[in-house]
Write a structure and sequence with these properties.
The complex is a heterodimer of chains A (348) and B (280).
Chain A lengths: L15 H20 L20 H34 L12 H15 L12 H27 L4 H25 L2 H12 L7 H28 L3 H6 L4 H23 L5 H13 L3 H25 L8 H19 L6
Helix pairs in contact in A: 1-2, 1-11, 2-7, 2-9, 2-10, 2-11, 3-4, 3-5, 3-6, 3-9, 4-5, 4-9, 7-9, 7-11, 10-11
Chain B lengths: L13 E10 L2 E10 L4 E5 L6 H8 L7 E6 L2 E2 L5 H5 L2 E4 L11 H6 L11 H11 L15 H15 L7 E5 L7 H18 L2 E5 L3 H7 L2 E6 L2 E7 L5 H8 L3 E5 L5 E5 L13 E2 L3
Parallel strand pairs in B: 3-8, 3-9, 6-7, 7-8, 11-13
Antiparallel strand pairs in B: 1-2, 1-4, 4-5, 9-10, 11-12
Classes of the chains: A mainly alpha (348), B alpha/beta (280).
Chain lengths: 348, 280
């Protein structure tokens, strides 16, 4: 006799207390981060500007600061879960989309669009223009993911060293193309190019926040269904197939989600490295390596990390602003070395 | 034969009809064999003879290029991976688990293809007990020794076909990483597990004595070919001698068990003698 009972992914989605605690922390961090900055914010400014008298500070909060902190949370979350997915797919904690060249692939495609879109013989309809950059970034990210998957499996099957070296080669190509774009660009294009290579959340607005939220929710919905199969993948592809997991489908779906998430964050915030490396690792250290926990928690941790990094980037040198990508790289570089030290016996 | 091995549908579990595979310059097969539910079959042969390839063909990890393979009368190419996983379990030679997962999670992955699995916790617990791995619960895979990891994977295989009858369990050197005491105990576990469910066992082994004591039939593989199939008793010695190119003798222990050993400095051409008796 069979009792209809789902061994649910949601049973492991973290128990209710943890989720409540995490949400509360996130909201608190959001409120604090939004209150700090060049312009002081009092509690009165938080009241929505109802009477049409939008004071300066309230405007700063609602139109500049809040979209930015929200985007930091969302983009960080997207990077965190993309990192967890890539690490699960390649079965290694060092398999970070940034290190493997996915970010630079997306940035490279975005740069090509910035420099060459105007000189295309056919004009684009104005309504499509805002979507051109995210689309190009997604295509670039997808191309790199696909190449990685194919080339690394073909040249050095199963070796993380081979995968990372392939990533270095792809990174080099992307940097070369970026350099070419810089060389050919006009002054105005050059300014937006440096935005892409350094990474910044200054371009945040409510539209982007809305789209980012939608994408993250879609990713969560997909990831919930993939989490169990991702666990099986930790046994290796052959063993995963033996226990009934359609590995090929899982691979292509994961690659698609990673490319979408990375492409979108690069299009909106430029290249922000190492969030995708650090967030899943922190989660695994604290909560074990069950993907049903790692994937959702990486969203929260990634979001909080990027929020902290961006708040520091905004406030440390007020009124000037340091690009956040520089911060995450300064933070992530040593972290990567530490991780390398932990896993050294398995590389080689 | 015990009652569980009487096949109700009365059709063989696994049938390979001249299944073959070409991998680069190497040619494997044709392999022809029939495996019935409840049978215990050991695959023997020198290293690099094609034993693992035979297992990979039967488990559909590799796709055969010629011939025909069917599971319960149905072409294995027509099974979905999920359906296959409910009919046969595979224990590979080595399985490296990424990220240092918890042992219970690894064991429960044996049943990952099931959407609805009400008895998961009980089955995982019982499977770990049967594989002598209950004391490893709560540990992480990357903190375990090779032998302990092997037991966790054996428990995962047990869990996979725990509530199935007449399934097929394929194992590639399941006992290689274990000490002699555990080898014996786990061999007993495998036998009782398979017997209770009518599962067939197909195992690659290197120990002739284990193969003779715990299995019904021996598949002798050499040079990518299935050289012969013999009953697992002392009459198999001549075939085993030519398979490994060594000379074998046998002794009878006081409790009536035959033990095979390798004879030193004996000419291979000599006919195998009738077994001498050990006087203790």
């Amino acid at each position: 006799m069979r009792i209809p009972f789902r061994s649910t992914p949601s049973a492991h989605w973290g128990n209710k207390w943890h989720v409540t605690l995490l949400l509360a922390t996130t909201l608190l961090a959001l409120a604090i981060a939004s209150s700090i900055g060049a312009v002081p914010i009092s509690w009165r400014d938080w009241l929505p500007p109802l009477h049409g008298e939008n004071t300066g500070n309230s405007y700063v909060l609602w139109e500049l600061r809040l979209p930015r902190t929200l985007l930091a949370l969302l983009a960080g979350g997207m990077l965190g879960v993309a990192g967890a997915l890539a690490q699960g797919l390649f079965r290694n904690p060092l398999a970070d989309p940034g290190l493997l060249g996915v970010n630079s692939g997306a940035a490279c495609a975005a740069a090509l669009t910035i420099v060459f879109a105007d000189s295309l013989p056919w004009g684009l309809p104005a309504g499509l223009r805002p979507w051109l950059l995210p689309l190009a970034a997604f295509a670039g990210a997808l191309l790199v993911c696909f190449t990685l998957d194919r080339v690394a499996r073909w040249i050095t099957p199963g070796s993380i060293a081979g995968l990372l070296l392939t990533g270095i080669a792809l990174n080099a190509i992307a940097v070369a193309v970026l350099g070419l774009c810089t060389y050919l660009s006009t002054d105005e294009q050059l300014r937006s190019l440096s935005f892409w290579t350094l990474g910044s959340l200054a371009g945040a607005g409510w539209t982007i926040v809305g789209v980012a939220l939608l994408m993250l929710l879609m990713a969560i919905w997909q990831v919930r269904r993939l989490a169990r199969a991702m666990n099986a993948l930790a046994l290796g592809e052959a063993a995963a197939a033996h226990i009934g997991i359609e590995v090929a489908t899982l691979r292509s779906r994961t690659i698609l989600i990673v490319a979408l998430l990375v492409g979108a964050t690069v299009a909106w915030c430029g290249m922000i490295s190492f969030i995708s490396l650090i967030a899943p690792h922190l989660v695994r250290t604290l909560h074990g390596s069950d993907q049903r926990r790692v994937l959702p928690l990486s969203i929260f941790v990634g979001g909080l990390l990027l929020l902290i990094a961006d708040t520091l980037a905004r406030t440390l040198a007020t009124p000037a602003e340091i690009p956040v990508g520089i911060f995450t790289a300064l933070l992530g570089g040593p972290f990567f070395l530490m991780l390398l030290n932990q896993t050294r016996e398995r590389i080689g | 034969m015990n009652p569980a091995t009487i096949n109700l549908i009365n059709q063989p579990l696994l049938v390979m009809e001249s299944a073959s595979l070409r991998l680069g310059r190497h040619h494997f097969g044709p392999y022809t064999l029939t495996l019935h539910a409840g049978e215990r079959v050991a695959v023997l042969g020198p290293s690099g003879a094609g034993k693992t390839t035979l297992l990979k063909l039967a488990s559909r990890e590799l796709h055969h290029s010629g011939g025909h393979i069917s599971l319960l009368g149905r072409d294995i190419r027509h099974y979905s991976l999920r359906e296959m996983s409910r009919r046969r379990a595979v224990l590979a030679q080595t399985t490296h688990v990424a990220f240092g997962m918890q042992t219970e999670l690894v064991v429960s992955l044996g049943r990952a293809a099931l959407e609805i699995d009400p008895h998961l916790t009980t089955i995982v617990h019982n499977a770990m007990q049967l594989a002598h791995a209950a004391h490893l619960a709560g540990r992480k895979m990357d903190q375990l020794s090779g032998g302990e990891q092997a037991r966790i994977h054996l428990a995962r295989i047990f869990a996979q076909l725990w509530d199935i009858e007449q399934g097929l369990v394929m194992m590639d050197e399941p006992l290689a990483a274990l000490d002699p005491g555990l080898q014996g105990e786990l061999l007993d576990s495998m036998q009782s597990y398979a017997e209770a469910r009518g599962h067939a066992l197909l195992a690659i082994l290197h120990d002739i004595n284990q193969a003779l004591h715990a299995f019904d039939r021996l598949l002798l593989v050499n040079n990518g070919q299935l050289e012969s199939q013999v009953k697992a008793d002392l009459h198999a010695l001549p075939a085993l001698q030519s398979l490994y190119g060594i000379h074998l003798g046998s002794l009878m222990t006081p409790d009536g068990q035959a033990v095979v050993y390798r004879k030193k400095n004996a000419a291979l051409t000599a006919r195998p003698q009738a077994h001498s008796h050990l006087n203790s």
